[in-house]
Protein 1
Amino acid sequence: GAVVSQHPSRVICKSGTSVKIECRSLDFQATTMFWYRQFPKQSLMLMATSNEGSKATYEQGVEKDKFLINHASLTLSTLTVTSAHPEDSSFYICSAHTSRLADYSGNTQYFGPGTRLTVL
Amino acid sequence: AQKVTQAQTEISVVEKEDVTLDCVYETRDTTYYLFWYKQPPSGELVFLIRRNSFDEQNEISGRYSWNFQKSTSSFNFTITASQVVDSAVYFCALSGDSNYQLIWGAGTKLIIKP
């Protein structure tokens, strides 16, 4: 249980285009989803927290107009990188949290497999 | 403020050796959770363990074991009889009880040589 999928797993795009990344909780309803960015050989950096039906909360220094997050349902959140530039190239990871699992595991985030974005 | 320190940037051992990854945390919360995640070269984070602050019992799962000591604010992870497949980056993380955000350590890269 508690499987999170992320699509696409890898994307290469031209500078100036927008890229959408989907994060889905497959077998549970995620009340909260998180988006992280990870640079090579570094730890995860939280970009934003999104709750279903409400606006995402962005971390300091993360441009909300650049990284659009939509959490339209309890199983889907999307991150759109608008007008992507080479410096946006990174590994983007989503995670999902719920307090509704039958075997409630309290405060555990379940992670998607990540999306490697390369902007040329 | 909450903080997680993984002082070991990289560890390299020969297969079958035991290895311990250190994790030291700081928090003022009385209720908190500690985690270990494994990140193999593929990039996908694999959940290994969650421990809450009221449960100081050590845990063993196969070749993996965890030593939680509140007195030293440490949550160390030991792999016994390491294998090449254990090669990965391991992250220790902390979250409080009031929100679900994770505070991450810098990660320890573990290299197991055949």
Protein 2
Amino acid sequence: ETGVTQSPTHLIKTRGQQVTLRCSSQSGHNTVSWYQQALGQGPQFIFQYYREEENGRGNFPPRFSGLQFPNYSSELNVNALELDDSALYLCASSLGGVRTEAFFGQGTRLTVV
Amino acid sequence: GNSVTQMEGPVTLSEEAFLTINCTYTATGYPSLFWYVQYPGEGLQLLLKATKADDKGSNKGFEATYRKETTSFHLEKGSVQVSDSAVYFCALGGAAETGQAGTALIFGKGTTLSVSS
């Protein structure tokens, strides 16, 4: 068991709505990364938080935003949902550092209709 | 830019067959390389990793060697089991492009392995 938990596991939203996904990182991990995995594709890096600060961002528009809290848990917020936002959203926690491994949660399956 | 290319699947094998899944990468600097596995309906699990050239990562009978000269990190297993059926992802980390986090992972598209008894 990795210790990274995500909620909810499944979610259905309507186009144009807003959604918040949550992630609790593994104990002791100070870095959280979010990935989007479209069906049949590999995960794509959205952004990363290190000690409550955004620490890098992939090629995603500003309507994808996030937060990290003092206990290192994190939220991913997506505004103005589009049909193409339908995907599995994965959270990964790590100790930071280039060579450390990331531990993934089970993901949140978001469906936009 | 940095990228990972995996052989396309699906790969269909009989139990006890030899497995190879090819992975090549393009990256600046000296990335770490990873193989992750994803079982149906689940998140990603780290299978093995290598952090420098010529390192061999191994776990549960799977192996992969970091080959800098061929920019490859092929996954192998000598005898697959039905329980190995899953999607396998090759990934690189520590080769961040401008604006990305140093620890961001870049994944291949994944290779589906199906093993029959």
